[in-house]
Amino acid sequence: MNYSIKNKISKILENIDSSDLDFRNNSFVLKASSKNLDESLLKLNNIGLEYEEDIDENIVLKFQSYFGDLKIFYYSTILQIFDEAFLMNDFIVFDNNLNWIFFDSERKLFETNNSQNIEFYNFSSNIYYYYLLFDNLKSKKFCDHFDDAHNQIVIYSEKKGIFKIVYNNKPTILNSEIYKENILNLIEIIKNLELKMFLKNNLFSITNNSLKIDISDLIEKSEDLYENSIRDYELYSKKFEFDKFKDNLYKEKEKFFISIREIINKIYSQAVSIPVLISASTLASYKLPNEYFINTLILLILIAYSIFYNKILIYYLKDLKVLKKEFKRDFNIIETKSGLDKKIISNEKKNIRNKINSSLSFIKT
């Protein structure tokens, strides 16, 4: 709370006895019958609190001029005066005994001098949160039409039709519990592009498709609305992730098949080159005069090539074993996190595992 405001409130409480005050016509009045009236008036002059005398010779205190730009409300009349226009401003509410509750618009916090007066605190803060919700519900970011003339906020659904949130110029505000947490949760959804669709859908369902709800009833059901909207969003997200994982599963399958085919093709190309080499060598030995020397040379070349070929096979064998290890790791992740039917995963795992094992057997033979 601003120090100057707190200081002004302290000066009032120090210099005026609340038992000498009445509340009339939306103002505090210092009763003409109060003891030491002249002394009280002198104190008012000293702290700069202006006043005027009414027709009954009572002293009407000018709180608004004393607090300057700070908006002053009174507990008994705030409901008739407060609206969303005051949401962005500091304000203070007094009850008839000069208890006060101050709203700091910058920090979005309420302060009070009497935390024991629960009804006063709840009522005053609930008015603020009521209009905060009202301001967000009627915003263009959430509703499809704000019908101020008929006191209704209109929401349109292509599948379910038109839904109306109705309100009274004088709302019903509870003082038994505070709205803050539930309303702030709803506002969080209203401002979220992904979540607000689910809130709108739940407005239809929570009213049993009556297509209308009073904003006060909406606040009472705000906890259910919030929880249901979050639940529906999570279910939708899970389905989206399900489809995403399903796509990834088939991509992983294709990736492994491509890798296996590349290795097998390399092995085949190497294997095919052996008979070609033998044929070429035989043809060469047939035409050359020094057959013994040439045959010995060809034999040595074949032995060297066979050794080299076996090393290549060992290299490809290692590749396949690494591929098999990666396959187990990747599919374990898909199996535990995807939410896919275990039969789908099992079938795809079996296909890839069989392909890898048959390739391994081919190399080993």
Describe this structure in words.
The chain has 365 residues and is α+β, with helices and mostly antiparallel strands. The protein is 59% helix and 13% strand. The protein is built from eleven helices and twelve strands. The chain has helices spanning 3-15, 37-47, 63-67, 78-81, 118-137, 180-190, 196-206, 215-220, 222-287, 291-337, 342-364, and strands spanning 21-24, 27-30, 51-53, 59-61, 71-74, 91-94, 100-104, 109-112, 145-147, 152-157, 161-166, 212-214. The strands form three sheets. The chain has a four-stranded antiparallel beta sheet with strand order 1-2-4-3, with no helix packed on it. Strands 5-6-7-8 form a four-stranded mixed beta sheet. Strands 9-10-11-12 form a four-stranded mixed beta sheet. The protein is elongated, with a radius of gyration of 41 Å. The termini are far apart. 19% of the residues are buried.
Gist?
With 365 residues, the chain is of the alpha+beta class. The chain is 59% helix and 13% strand. The chain has helices spanning 3-15, 37-47, 63-67, 78-81, 118-137, 180-190, 196-206, 215-220, 222-287, 291-337, 342-364, and strands at 21-24, 27-30, 51-53, 59-61, 71-74, 91-94, 100-104, 109-112, 145-147, 152-157, 161-166, 212-214.
Record keyword descriptors for this entry.
365 residues, alpha+beta, 4-stranded mixed β-sheet, 12 strands, elongated
Write the SSE topology.
Blueprint: H1 3-15, E1 21-24, E2 27-30, H2 37-47, E3 51-53, E4 59-61, H3 63-67, E5 71-74, H4 78-81, E6 91-94, E7 100-104, E8 109-112, H5 118-137, E9 145-147, E10 152-157, E11 161-166, H6 180-190, H7 196-206, E12 212-214, H8 215-220, H9 222-287, H10 291-337, H11 342-364
Helix pairs in contact: 1-2, 5-6, 6-9, 7-9, 9-10, 9-11, 10-11
